[in-house]
Design a protein that fits this description.
105 residues; mainly alpha; 3 helices; 0% strand; rod-shaped
Length: 105
Amino acid sequence: MQHIRQQITSLNEEIQDFHQNVNLGEVQDFQPINQKLVNVFQEISKHNCFSELGNEISELTNHLHQLNKTSIEVHKDVLASLKNLNQHKQANIGYGKSIKNVNDN
């Protein structure tokens, strides 16, 4: 069971690093962490030690929850930026058409 605790501790650190990088706006692949989560929970299930590892699992779940909240906020910020960029693009297109019309006359 000690090796599972070590895996959970390592995962918590990876998730915290990933979270920090998301906060910095870095795009990252979550798949490696996801696979480690699957492996850890398979080990926990195999050894039927959910109750013994309750605190560690709770901490891991909290880190994942915080990462999820941050990811949603970053996603909202990206969408807002894209919307803003599109509005500027549309305004520039309108401005370009106005200049063309003035020049054509």
